[in-house]
Each structure stands twice: as C-alpha cells, then as structure tokens.
Amino acid sequence: MTAERPSARDPFSRYRDQLAAVGFRPSSSRGQNFLLDPTLHRWIAEQAGACREDAVVEIGVGLGFLTRELARSAGKVLAVEIEPRLLDIARQELGASENIEWLLADALSGPGRTLAPRIGELARACGGRFMVVANLPYSVSGPLLAELAQLLRLPDRIIVLVQKELGQRLSAGVGDANYGGLSGLLQSLFAVRALRDVAPTVFRPRPKVWSSIIELELRDARPHVLESASSRTRYARFLRRLFGQRRKALRTTAAAAARDLGLPSPELPPALSAQRAEQLSPDQLVALWQRCEAV
After folding, report:
1. 198 and 39 in contact (C-beta within 8 Å)?
2. What is the largest distance, in Å, between two alpha-carbon atoms of the chain?
3. HSE-CB of 280 using CA atoms within 13 angstroms
4. What counts of helices (H) and strands (E) characterise the chain?
C-alpha cells in the first residue's frame, strides 16, 4: 500500500491559535524559533533529494512544517521533538502520513548525552541512503552534529539550518579564525558546504542573529583509521583536547591528548611538533591521530 502524502499546510495564524490554546510559548533556551517561509521548507527538502528508498531523521520538528515536505519524497521520516505540545500539533496535522514515525524525546537522550538510540537503529536498518535534515535548535546544534559523526552508520547527507556563526565554524578552513575541533572532526568525514544564509525575519519569534543552511556530504574516500564508531569517538575527544589549547605547539598538546586517551605520547618530527592544531588540515589531523594510535 502506498503511504498517504501530506497536503499543503494552512497559514501560520491557525497554528498560532493552536499554540495559544495549549499554553505554549517558545523557549529561547531550547532555541525554539519557527521557520515560517514555506518556500524555504521546500528548498531544504529539495537539497536533501530524498527518495522512496531513503530514511530521513528530522531533529526539532516544531509544528511539522519541514516534516511535511520531507514526507512527500522520503520513504521514512523519523520526526524527533522534545516538546509534547508541539509534537501533538504536528501529529494532528500529519498523522495520516504513514511514512512518518513520531519520537517524543530529547535527541541527546542517550547515555552520556549521546544520540537517542532510535536514531542509530534507523540508520542501521535503512536500506537506502540515511539522511539528517533539520532546522536544528541553536542551543544544541554543535553537540548534535558531533554526535552524528560518531554513529555506527554515518549519515550519507546532512542538511541543517544552524546559527550562522556555527555554520562558519563548520565550513572554515585552515587559517580561518573559525576553524576548530568541530571543523576538523566533521571535515575529516564529510565535504562541508554553506548553501545559503537565512535572515531573522522569516522566523517567529525572530532570533537576534542570521542563520545558515549547511550541507555535509559523506566523503567517498574516508580515512580507514576512522572506520569504526569507537575510533571516531576517540578521535573526537582527541581533537577537543588539541583545540582546547589551540595556541600551544603539538609537542605539548598531542602528548597531553594522547595521555587523556590512555595512549603513549607519539614521536613527532620536529617540523610537526612545532606546529599548532589550528595549522593542520583535516587530513593532517587524521594522520596525527593515526600516529598516536599506532604507538
């Protein structure tokens, strides 16, 4: 049986009345800013390019505006929302869509603030491409992306709307002041590209900052040393330690980062030991990690 696909959504004024009826007010601490422009919802879904064989995770469903567009093309949408009143409204609107699975949960509700287990389960069960497409809550965007890089099965594509400052960090290259541990981690695994900026005027309530839509495409040739989820988790810890003292030379920071992971200090060539983490490309960071693990 073919799953029923959602129709066009109603004006926001009707949703505003529903929110008022259940006493809901957006929380700034949770980054609850509703993206209202339906053309942007469609555009984001088009960039993902999901088809009937693909599974998509949306984190931060809100009122289901983007969910509606994703469900038109994807075979399966896992819609994750932490706020029960929002999820209830989205389910009422889109409950007839048989290809949407609703999950009331904090996306970082796994052990030690890792991803909710259902996300990893869907990734492993997906026979087509596994994607993450979302207007991410600003307050947890960085941690969420870092956790996605440590899944047993990595997403084939990630399309996310994030605060512009974070978007600049994600896509920054060596020599850019925004380049850091998260940049190095994600660019070691994905090709990262900024697609477009989004003004505060298309959100309610309006944030005080601009946003950006970022694409992360899984690299075909990925480092063998990062093939397992456990190695990527350790690599992420290694990078956090390195960039935690980004102005110090690797002769100091690499040794300290290795010790934190129970590894002996690597022997580095003089030219490399004099450099700082922020001077190394993602491929060079991976090579440094490989030196540490090989000791």
Report:
1. no
2. 66
3. 27
4. 12, 9
**Rounded CA separation 191/258 (Å):** 27
C-alpha–C-alpha distance, residues 211 and 91, integer Å: 27
Residue 227, phi then psi, degrees to nearest 5: -70, -40
In this predicted model, what pLDDT tens digit does every residue of 172-228 receive, in sequence order? 999 999 999 999 999 999 999 999 999 999 998 899 999 999 999 999 988 999 999
CB 233 within 8 A of CB 257: no
Question: CA 9, CA 64: separation in Å to the nearest integer?
Answer: 9
- Picking from 79, 59, 48, the residue whose alpha carbon sits closest to that of residue 158 is 48
For 236, 255, 258, 290, the CA distances from 263, given in Å and listed in that order, are: 15, 9, 5, 12
Tokens of 224: 């063998």
Higher per-residue confidence, 198 vs 31: 198
User: Letter for the amino acid at 160?
Assistant: V
Mean pLDDT of the chain: 93
> Residues 164, 212: contact at Cβ < 8 Å?
yes
Domains of the chain are 12-221 (3.40.50.150), 226-294 (1.10.8)
DSSP single-letter state for residue 249: B
Look at residue 27 in the predicted model and tell me its pLDDT: 80
Task: Name the 3-class secondary structure at 204.
Answer: strand
